[in-house]
Specification:
By secondary structure, this protein is mostly helical. The chain is built from 18 helices and no strands.
Length: about 325
């Protein structure tokens, strides 16, 4: 007689015992194997997922077990798991830490969001207000939408687009602080399809929005956004925005035109971190762009950071055949 699967085909009492056994093992030295077994168990016994929030509230689990259990809900991502995450994230019964964990766990979901899940996440946009003690939960909720869209892009492109559209549709009515997180969430989609919606804010009169747009574009890899980032460098006056722009550009394989622009603005930079990033970009591209050597040598004469000096010397030294 064929032995029945140890996870499936369990009676109610056996299911309860198996759940307790798996819960007790979470967070121990066999954590990975137990975690995989718990995922398998919950997918085979979906009704048990509804009880996960109550297990967290029971007071019988260690923090490491709770953290892994919430993480598992996002990984399995089925409707029941999303419902459990919404309950944890939205209820004051749970600690702020566990509520934030539940929101972050949504970024692991690879199944389409339920209506309740999307409503919960996007509703937190209105809660993004300065000095709100729970703003971390609200901002994480909005940022998660773009990350989920990215996860769904290949298998569920229409559902992924719906999530991105939900972000775009709220840009016109959001205040400046809320827009910053909507823009960053769009960046989390990593889809060049939304570069234009982000690039628009590189020319905002609000430096924080320009910075948010520059940071969001670091996840894009299209020539359009590279050109847009490059074009703002010579005219941008805010040091924090310049740093965000060069940091985004440093993640790409750059055109000679963009490298030329970076070389042009390099000696004028007063921000140590911006100079460091620029030095690294010019050092990495120096062999194909020999003019970088002259600019780096010029920067060395005025550099005050020992770390940056060492980077310049290394870059210039590596360029000598």
């Amino acid at each position: 007689m064929k032995k029945k699967d140890s996870v499936q085909h369990l009676g109610n009492n056996d299911r309860d015992e198996r759940m307790k056994e798996l819960l007790s093992g979470l967070g121990d030295r066999r954590a990975r194997a137990i975690s995989l077994a718990m995922r398998e168990y919950l997918l085979a016994n979906r009704d048990a997922i509804y009880g996960v929030p109550d297990e967290i509230l029971s007071g019988e689990l260690k923090d490491s077990q709770i953290r892994e259990l919430i993480n598992i809900l996002g990984i399995i991502g089925v409707d029941e798991a999303q419902q459990a995450l919404v309950r944890i994230a939205s209820s004051s019964e749970f600690s702020d830490e566990n509520r934030l964990r539940a929101v972050i766990s949504f970024t692991s979901v690879t199944e389409p969001l339920t209506d309740d899940s999307l409503t919960f996440l996007i509703s937190h946009l209105s809660n993004i207000v300065r000095n709100d003690p729970r703003m971390d939960i609200s901002t994480a909720s909005v940022l998660a939408i773009g990350s989920i869209s990215k996860k769904l892009m290949d298998k569920y492109p229409e559902r992924a687009a719906e999530l991105a559209d939900a972000l775009i549709s709220r840009l016109n009515t959001a205040d400046s602080l809320q827009k910053r997180f909507l823009i960053k969430s769009l960046g989390n989609t990593a889809s060049a399809e939304y570069s234009d919606d982000i690039v628009e804010y590189l020319n905002s009169s609000d430096s924080e929005l320009r910075r948010a747009a520059a940071e969001a574009l670091k996840f894009m890899d299209d020539k359009y956004s590279e050109k847009a980032l490059s074009e703002v460098l010579p005219v941008e006056s805010d040091e924090n925005v310049v740093e965000a722009v060069v940091k985004s550009l440093s993640k790409r394989e750059l055109s000679k035109e963009t490298i030329g622009t970076i070389r042009e603005i390099a000696p004028k930079q007063t921000n140590t971190d911006s100079r460091r990033i620029i030095i690294d970009i010019m050092g990495e591209t120096i062999k194909d762009n020999p003019k970088n050597r002259e600019t780096l040598t010029q920067m060395l004469a005025n550099e005050t950071s020992r770390v940056n000096m060492k980077r310049i010397l290394k870059a210039v030294g590596n360029s000598v055949e």
